[in-house]
Fold Transcriptional regulator, GntR family.
Amino acid sequence: MHRRHLVIHFLSMETRRADQIAVQLEELIFDGTFVDGQRLDEVRLAEHFGVSRTPLREALQRLALSGMVEMIPRRGAFVQQPGPVQLMEMFEVMAELEAACGRLAAMRITDSALGDLRAANAKCLAAVEARDSDSYYAENERFHRIIYQQSGNGFLEQETSKLHKRLKPFRRKQLRFRGRMAQSMAEHEAIVAALEDGDAARAEDTLRKHVAVQGEKFHILMASLKRAAE
Amino acid sequence: MHRRHLVIHFLSMETRRADQIAVQLEELIFDGTFVDGQRLDEVRLAEHFGVSRTPLREALQRLALSGMVEMIPRRGAFVQQPGPVQLMEMFEVMAELEAACGRLAAMRITDSALGDLRAANAKCLAAVEARDSDSYYAENERFHRIIYQQSGNGFLEQETSKLHKRLKPFRRKQLRFRGRMAQSMAEHEAIVAALEDGDAARAEDTLRKHVAVQGEKFHILMASLKRAAE
DNA sequence: GTCAACAATTTTGTATACAAGCCGGATCAT
DNA sequence: ATGATCCGGCTTGTATACAAAATTGTTGAC
């Protein structure tokens, strides 16, 4: 089933115009080209992508179901960025999902995956010392994805990955906090240790806090931005 | 935002044909009219619903994104019932999500919600004694939904509800285990007690086990069915 | 008899055409 | 002058038409 899904995705990239458009639209919303609340005009977008309204509507509906766009019947499609409250909620769920992954992974993780985790962590550390935030970000993601996968639950891995992707643009912003990368590294070490010991409760706890703190930092960031605006 | 969503849903029920069809198709897949792996012919379904292919395709895509249908480019749409493995995975995630709801609810639940829980539980008990499995089922669902809601996290509530709904047709099957309803009732009591005490860890644990056991019972059921078939 | 290649048919994906509802401006009444 | 109402343009939702690809059946060769 996994393989089949990959094949679908692969084919769809090549064959169905609607899918390509969905991906591109997603990018345009992520990078802020379309601001929150903006109406997405079907005909304008259709001619922009050089297609008719039919595949474009399909792409919009896909985004609507993933929550990035709100489709109001007979009114149109509007960009829907999560507000501060919803964002905090999503971070909280992210923390719970990762905690669940960690709990299960503690019981199921393979030795080779533990090695991969340590390798990713080492590269992470190197990136921190090199002040290479892009590289840090990439390795950090690899670290977490290994844990999702080692939960041994494909469905959980899928759901967690989905939310991870959705939170990506927001997570990035809080990385710049002073000392955050170093602290994060220490937390990674603790997580690996817990997994190595097969200590489910500790893996769950450390992971939950590790992710939850991102949400809190983000909260602080939002508050400071809001204060600055007043 | 909640209200806005409700309005959308309400309007869509009236105005957009595609949405109604999506709901009806969902029903047809749930109740087994369309068996697993069956190809869903667009033209046949279109004329069955008395619409053109356009809204029908939109409905299919919606089901595809919710995972009930698999759309293979240039090949068609096929019913995709979760297999035993994926089902177990989904039950496991359900257990983790409900555990998360319980953990958060233990810290946030209101007194009136605690009262609602006890009320639902009482009706549950009455249903058990009356051997009224339908009523038991309804009140059981109410019980769990209250906990989702009392997590105080709208996003978590939404995601948990989504999976709950998806697992509904499978959960039902394992209710008939001898003594399961009584055991389930005892577990409910323990859950309420944990929530009442504001004991997050206990609420998390009891809820996880309460849901996980459903998956296990289901597993046993599947195994026995498989054995009977051989 | 079996396998392969090709053609015909079916089916999906996309474009265009049509219908129906919403938005804004103009007109009219108070 | 202000408010409501109605009409026209514009946008969405749906139907139909067309193009491309896949499946199936047939034919031919080995």
User: Anything to note?
Assistant: The domain at 2-79 of chain A is CATH 1.10.10.10 (Arc Repressor Mutant, subunit A). The CA atoms of residues 136 and 145 of chain A lie 14 Å apart. The longest helix of chain A spans residues 200-229. The interface with chain B takes residues 1, 4, 8, 11-12, 15-16, 54, 57-58, 61-62, 65-66, 70-74, 83, 86, 89-90, 92-93, 96-97, 99-100, 103-104, 153-156, 159 of chain A (CB under 8 Å).
